[in-house]
Design a protein that fits this description.
heterotrimer; A alpha/beta; B mainly alpha; C mainly alpha; A: alpha/beta; Rossmann fold; CBS-domain; 6-stranded mixed β-sheet; 16 strands; globular; C: mainly alpha; 10 helices; 74% helix; 0% strand
Chain lengths: 368, 216, 239
């Protein structure tokens, strides 16, 4: 657990970057500090590993105040990931990752093996071992940065805008993979970002800070969306809050899934007409996995791939209300496809079904 | 410091200064005129760049006195001919500037170049109207180095007997007399500073779009 | 060129090997002193940021000083106090060091400043102590520019040492100066060729050392070594 107790950072010229911050980041969870420029989020982060020293107040690492510790030794217990990775350009990837274990006195062979393991963990091919940072893309460099931070298996990790310096497609990939990784490793992490959507997507807890270094609200993503503490938080979280909050609700069992008739590829036009309900019929593959919708009156002889309308998304039965609603809204037949964990068809839902369920139980909690 | 002597030698010193200016500035101009197209070519044809820069590097490595002596062989001129000095310093200037020009042209933002192309400029028009003007600051910086170096290099020619401010040094050495030496050093430094300043002014005149910042 | 082919010229106190040896000796001593002075200073200024005024002012100022004038001035000042050979060796060394310090200093400073700030921040965040950051991150990463400065400086030294023959210093410049005095053009050419070769040799030697010593991660080289333009010194030597 990382705890801030009345922590302030004031500079000699009078600027107050962080003002009496009180915050607790629970063990094993990912806490995100988010806010506009100048809110003191990065300053707060860097006070944890004492790259910046607090003016007053105490920061605790598992109930031990950090002020008494040797700063260098403190930092060796905390993984540190920064925006532009900060890899050592003069060392190979594997040497970069092995930096921490070697610093802690690990046997070089073991350190190297650990580095190779971590490369695999973060999704880097083993062939990158002897490459240099300049040969890697931004996203790849960032993965190395994460691997390097994990190499000494620290209990804590600090991440300063780790995914901001890459393009949106790569960013989404890195975020997804990082979520998966965190589920495996369960470290106590504090991450800083200016992107509220990233905060809501990744954080177990999100601390919204306002300019001047004050904590505006600390809550789960769902709470931030459904119960923002004040105008600033509401504004910062942004619009479409109702719709976005649906992304944090568990839909399992809340909505009745209707039976849906279906045909397979290659079925005759006649069969398609029989199985259709309204103007559309659902087409699946031989494993009962949905492929798309077709209009029987447009089918010549038999159902072919070209006849399929692919716009509908499919929702998992264990997914969120948002996925269910989107499945219904995006489907040309207005019936949203629901599948099980293997991707096989379970049935469909209509938007009305989903809305009824939402209205019946307004605060369905997060499935995380 | 014997000012009386200086007073008597004044006309002589002015002549030497004139020669020094001529020998320093001519290679600058010639060197720049040669380096511009070479630098452009080096950038245009990427395969040529390593060769040109390599040769330039080698030439720059040859010590000045050696080059002053070897050039008469190549040019077929007499050793005392100032042409050797001008040729040698032009070679040094070109060697220095080729890389500077190529890199300066290279550092023009790609967007700018593309915009010029899209507007319909031909290659040489783009070069003259867009790329070269934008490269002026970097080229000026290189030109300043060349200018100041040249002033010092010219004085080396005194060892071969060629008349310029360096002659004051050799004269002072032979006569064990400080005055001409100190006068020579001061004049050289002043000349170097004047040329440096002229290039700075030229740069500012050619780039009216840059904000007026305190000169470094 | 005939001078080179006369075997008499290859022996004795005035022989080519002796002159070459002298030239190398003075050059290396001057380079060593200049490096010992300039590298730590450059690192200090680069890391702490104190004294940056020295960098900008120094380089341009010293480049403007005519080496011939300086040599002669110092010789006239110093030789009365030192009747022996030191009378001209000392002023020569002083000038050589004086002219070699700026390229090493400015390039070392530039090298330290050019180190990726994110890498230094990451190192500090990982728990490296200041000394270790210097030795493990900043120095290796500033090596390319530092060596480039040494390369420029050596060139400057070899060149100026040649000129110093005028004030009686030994070395290959003797062939040029004596040749001029004796109107022996062949001797002068021999001297010029030898000095040029010496300079080229050391320039390439330092380029080679740079390629070997600097991490491929910095020079962006793939494993097939190719002589690239990045070998050329950043701030070239004058004279």
């Amino acid at each position: 657990m990382i705890k801030f107790e009345n922590v302030t950072k004031a500079y000699p010229d009078g600027t107050v970057a962080v003002d009496g911050l009180n915050l607790e980041a629970p063990t094993g969870k990912l806490t995100i500090l988010v806010g506009p420029s100048g809110c003191g989020k990065t300053t707060s982060l860097r006070m944890i590993n004492r790259l910046i020293e607090p003016t007053s107040g105490t920061i605790y690492l598992d109930d031990q105040p950090t002020s008494g510790m040797d700063a260098a030794l403190l930092r060796r217990r905390i993984g540190y990931v920064i925006q532009h990775a900060g890899l050592f350009p003069h060392r190979t990837i594997v040497d970069n990752i092995a930096t921490m274990p070697l610093l802690l006195g690990e046997n070089p062979k073991k350190a190297k093996m650990r580095a190779l393991e971590l490369m695999e963990r973060v999704g880097l091919p083993a062939s990158f071992e002897r490459r240099y940072p300049w040969q890697l893309s931004g996203g790849q460099q960032q993965r190395v940065g994460v691997a390097r931070a994990l190499a000494a298996d620290p209990a804590f990790m600090l991440m300063d805008e780790p995914f901001s310096a890459v393009d949106p497609v790569v960013r989404a990939q890195l975020q997804d993979e990082f979520l998966r990784l965190q589920q495996e490793i369960g470290k106590t992490i504090i991450m800083v970002t200016h992107d509220i959507d990233e905060a809501l997507k990744l954080g177990d807890q999100v601390a919204v800070m306002r300019v001047g270094g004050h904590l505006a609200q600390m809550a789960t993503p769902s709470e931030l969306l459904t119960a923002p503490a004040d105008d600033f938080v509401a504004d910062f979280v942004g619009r479409d809050r109702g719709y976005r909050s649906l992304g944090f609700t568990d839909s399992s069992g809340a909505v009745d899934i209707r039976e849906e008739a279906f045909v397979e590829l290659g079925a005759s036009a006649g069969e398609a007409r029989t199985k259709a309900s309204g103007a559309w019929v659902l087409v699946v593959d031989s494993n009962r996995k949905p492929l798309g919708w077709a209009q029987p009156e447009r089918i010549a002889v038999e159902v072919r791939r070209e006849d399929l309308n692919l716009s509908g998304t499919s929702a998992s039965s264990a997914g969120t209300m948002r996925q269910l609603l989107d499945a219904a809204l995006s489907s040309p037949s207005r019936r949203g496809v629901v599948v099980n964990s293997s991707g096989e068809l379970l049935g469909t839902v209509t938007a009305t079904d989903v809305i009824k369920a939402i209205e019946a139980e307004p605060h369905l909690e997060t499935a995380r | 410091m014997n000012f009386e002597w200086l007073g008597r030698q004044f006309d002589n010193i002015v002549v030497l200064l004139g020669w020094h200016v001529f020998l320093s500035v001519t290679p600058l101009i010639l060197g720049l005129l040669i380096a511009l197209p070479l630098g452009w070519w080096a950038r245009r044809q990427r395969s040529v760049y390593p060769f040109l820069v390599g040769v330039a590097g080698l030439l720059y490595t040859v010590p000045s006195l050696a080059l002053f002596v070897l050039l008469p062989l190549v040019l077929g001129s007499k050793i005392l001919d100032p042409v050797n000095i001008i040729a040698a310093l032009t070679i040094y200037t070109v060697a220095l500037l080729v890389r500077v020009v190529a890199d300066a042209l290279d550092s023009v933002p790609e967007d700018t170049v593309q915009a010029a192309k899209a507007m319909g400029y031909r290659a040489y028009q783009s070069f003259l109207k867009v790329e070269l003007p934008v490269s002026v600051p970097v080229i000026s910086a290189g030109l300043r180095v060349a200018a100041v170096s040249n002033v010092s290099l010219v004085s080396v020619a005194a060892l071969l007997g060629i008349p310029q401010l360096g002659s004051l040094f050799t004269q002072g050495f032979q006569l064990r007399f400080f005055t001409p030496i100190i006068a020579g050093i001061i004049l050289c430094v002043i000349l170097a500073m004047v040329l440096d300043g002229l290039v700075i002014l030229l740069n500012r005149w050619l780039t009216p779009w840059t904000p007026k910042v305190v000169a470094s | 060129m005939n001078y080179l082919f006369d075997p008499a010229h290859w022996t004795g106190a005035d022989g080519i090997p002796t002159l070459l040896g002298e030239h190398l000796l003075y050059s290396m001593i001057a380079l060593g002193i200049a490096a010992i002075l300039a590298i730590p200073l450059g690192i200090y200024i680069g890391v702490t940021g104190k004294g940056v005024f020295m960098i900008a002012g120094l380089a341009n100022a010293l480049r403007a000083l005519p080496s011939v004038g300086l040599l002669i001035l110092l010789v006239l000042l110093i030789s009365p106090a030192f009747p022996s050979k030191m009378g001209y060796i000392l002023p020569s060394l002083i000038v050589l060091v004086l002219l070699a310090v700026p390229p090493i200093l400015t390039n070392t400073y530039a090298g330290v400043r050019a180190v990726d700030a994110a890498a230094v921040d990451a190192a500090r965040g990982m728990g490296f102590r200041t000394m270790k950051i210097l030795t493990d991150v900043q120095l290796p990463c500033s090596l390319p520019l530092m060596l480039s400065g040494v390369r420029s400086a050596l060139l400057q030294i070899i060149s100026t040492a040649t000129i110093a023959a005028y004030i009686s210093l030994g070395g290959l410049g003797r062939l040029l100066i004596d040749g001029k005095a004796q109107n022996d053009f062949s001797q002068m050419v021999a001297g010029a060729v030898l000095v040029a070769l010496l300079a080229l040799f050391f320039d390439q030697l330092l380029a080679f050392i740079t390629r070997r010593v600097v991490s491929p991660g910095l020079t962006r080289r793939t494993l097939k070594t190719v002589t690239s333009p990045s070998d050329a010194p950043l701030i070239p030597a004058a004279a």
